[in-house]
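User: For my dataset I need records formatted as: sequence, then structure tokens, nothing else. Please produce one.
Assistant:
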Amino acid sequence: MTNPDWTAAWTAALADMELEADAVEQMLRHRDLLEQAGERAAFVPPSDIGPLPLELTDRARLLVARQLDLSRELSVAIAGNRQQARLVNRTRREGGGGGAPPVYFDNRT
């Protein structure tokens, strides 16, 4: 028999973790809006909530799989950002650094 307090605590913790995963997905999908997004409090795991109730096992497994997928996506995004930063730095160095940085202007609008 599962303690009802444990079930409620784990349900709330999993909901908070899912909200955190939702925020990461939004960040990955809408990187252009990242600068406009406010600071979000990071998930802090609760302490002393007891063992995971059996009825929440499937939900927890799905969440772990989702988090692993998101961590892979974040790694790819971080690597891409680093590559872009290296390219920008190299472009600045090769341009002599004395003038304005090159810009792209799209006048199709």
